[in-house]
Fold this sequence. Notes:
Elements: E1 6-7, H1 9-16, H2 27-37, E2 48-52, H3 58-65, E3 70-75, H4 78-88, E4 96-101, E5 114-120, H5 129-139, E6 140-151, H6 153-157, E7 162-166, E8 169-173, H7 180-190, E9 192-198, E10 223-230
Amino acid sequence: MSVTPILEPAAAYALWAANYPAHAHNPVMRAEERALLGLIPDRLEGRAVLDAGCGSGRYMLHALHRGASHVTGVDLAPAMLERAAAELASWQGRAAVELKQGQLPQLPLPDAAVDLTICGLVIGHVRQLAPALAELRRVTRPGGSILISDVHPTGHALGWLRDFKADGRRYAVEHTPHLYSHWHAACVALGLSIERVVEPMLDPADIPTGAHFDPVALDVPVALVFRLRRLSKPEGAI
Length: 238
């Protein structure tokens, strides 16, 4: 049995970018996206939105379709930013759209730059949760929302990989599970209020006929989705 190489995010997404569409393209992503979109306001007119770890731009597109006036995407991989630029080309002149290379926890944005921050299925690529959350908080205005999703820690415990194929070979992206206790402790320390937590399950209708997958996946949550609010100061501060 061959062993799947596990790559650091920069190397993985450089390989994956050529085949990475700007929409949820597997059952886990569809479950995650349904949950996260349910936490985004239906109308975003006048709002500045950041997609941290934007990939090929799927959440940027959702924000634009909901009327966001200014959307910024940040990603580690230049190849992913090229994909996003192609997907977003039709929006030029209709809304302010920016793409920047960067990564957590060093986002290339000033303090309190956006009203809404989205970080979809990215934070598991960061080994330390608190510094990443601190950076997402920094760029979000006081009172603003931060929507974050990750693969559920249960999947990691069951041995699931964030895998993909490139040039006919299977690879996986390095991923660190962050438990709810880690999220709670970091949010309390940083002045982030946990407003909603969603643990979506797979929809059997999303599973392709004949697909090979762990049947346990239908019985456990596959993603962990948070809506956080940036408070003016950490809880307990005077």
